[in-house]
Amino acid sequence: PSTSQVQKGLEKLSPAQVDQKTAEVVQYILVKDQKKVPIRRADLVKNIVKDYRTVYPEIIKRASRIFEQVFGLKLVEIDPKNHLYILVNNLDTPPSNPSPVEHPSNPKTGLLFVILGVIFMKGGVVRDKLVWNILKKLRVDSGLKHDEFGDVRKLVTDEFVRQRYLEYNRVAHTEPVEYEFRWGQRADMEVSKAKILEFMAELHDQDPRSWTQQYKEANPTHTSSQASSSSHR
Amino acid sequence: MSRQLGDSHRRFLQNMMTLGITNEQEAKALYQNCCETHKTQCAPDKLDEFIDAINSRLQPMFMQIRKGMSEENGHQYYALVNMAETDITRMTSDYADNELELFRKAMDLIVSSENGKVSSTDILNCTDTMTSKSLKKSETQHLLTRLVQEKWLCERRGEYTLSTRCIIEMEPYIRAMYQDQVKVCHICHNIAFQCQICENPLCGIKIHNPCVARYFKGRTDPHCPACDDFWPHEIPEVRGLRSQSKR
Ligand SMILES: [Mg+2]
Ligand SMILES: [Mg+2]
Ligand SMILES: [Zn+2]
Ligand SMILES: [Zn+2]
After folding, report:
1. Pairing of strands A126-127, A145-146
2. Torsion of CA B214, B215, B218, B222, to 10 degrees
3. Distance between CA atoms of residues A148 and A8, nearest Å
4. Which residues of A touch B (CB under 8 A)?
5. pLDDT value at residue A99
6. Mean pLDDT to the nearest integer, A14-23
């Protein structure tokens, strides 16, 4: 709908009606986001927005404002063609002093960080075989059922991929078929490269500055880092 | 009045969204941690005000961080609850219809029981009378494990009780659904499941076990606070704060 159509639509509704619909949209997105699966605009409109579709742009604008002001989250459209949304953390300071409360998803986050780290250290893309080998050295065998993670291969190539933390694609023209990993859109937006480098440095017991190339990429000059962080606010 | 929130409030809320429920000690530590991370002032006795500010902005979303007592140990807990008017709102996206039916049946049994508990055998027997697609024995057992893991039920020696989080979140629902059966604690006036009951048939007031412990602490000759009859039950010990983290 165009701006004037939205305006007309709003005139027919009471502020309380618009607030109520906005609240429903916020709830819906929060519930869906618990599984970290992108939210399709089509589903949102079909299930929640319904008769309010003419004022959809206004409702999504208000919902975004609430996510930022109340929840410290940013609603991001990751696929403008298919209109997919995800919520990413919008708080500037990463949890540097770890939360005193045990985070239930911590072991999975650890596993994800290892994989993101490997990809980052290898310049942004790695073959899946390398990832499986590295995990095996860390006693996480993708061929076996793991106590904590269950089916490791499924967690990595399915769950992390659906959540947009990883991209997992077939490499063209390989026989037998090979796959490669890259950082997913959620990782790009949510995960700091400096943090990942620190994490890898700790894992290898080395100074992060010993990886010159990665250190430069993770800690760009002040002007560009400010530009990228202010865009989150 | 809705108040301006800072990043410390937002971080606290994000943690509550992950945790679902947390005890008072952990909540205080989290509050302090959030304030330190965002370099804002933190007064240890101002946790409830801090949460009130968050609640003032959550209320239009039909959400709230609500405080309640554990029937197990009498300690205060904070839970992030959903107040939307559909029943068992947050569960409907996580559980199938027949799973929710079984959960409601378990809740019926717990509410109508004397001691706020139901055995796994009684829950398994419920599957015969389900209107939605019946659950197999193994599926029911798996569901019960999940309900415990996801903090809706607690289990001890094959007996199930409603979790603190479940009671805090569903109190309005339970009061509305079970108007005639629901018990209320004479001391704290909250809904009561695991409690002691005055044996005077004309009185019959209920008191939570932890409220009994606190109310009768140090009294050698306990009497009912309502009818003054002798209180014949064993008086439990007040549970120390240290046992709190081992839920
Ligand atoms: Mg940011
Ligand atoms: Mg739902
Ligand atoms: Zn009580
Ligand atoms: Zn009495």
Report:
1. unpaired
2. -140
3. 54
4. 19, 23, 26-27, 30-32, 66, 69-73, 89, 91-93, 95-97, 99-101, 103-105
5. 39
6. 91
Residue B141 is part of a domain; what is its CATH number? 1.10.10.10
How far apart are the CA of B74 and the centre of ligand 4, in A? 22
Average pLDDT over residues A51-55: 91
Query: CA of B82: how far to CAs of A198, B86, B111, B215, in Å?
Result: 38, 10, 21, 32
* Residues of B at the A interface, defined by Cβ within 8 angstroms: 5, 7, 10-11, 13-15, 17-19, 22, 26, 29-30, 33, 36-38, 54, 57-58, 60-63, 82, 84, 90, 93
β-pairing, B118-119 vs B63-69, is unpaired
The model's pLDDT over A33-50, given as tens digits with 9 standing for 90+, comes to: 877 788 999 999 998 888
pLDDT tens profile B125-138: 988 888 888 899 99
B153 and B199 assigned to the same domain = no
Asked if A130 and A202 sit in the same domain, the reply is yes
| Average pLDDT of span A136-142 | 84
Q: Do A97 and B84 touch (CB under 8 A)?
A: no
pLDDT value at B99 more than 60: yes
B59 and B121 belong to one structural domain: no
Q: Is the pTM of this model over 0.80?
A: no
> Span A79-86, mean pLDDT?
88
Radius of gyration of chain B (CA): 20
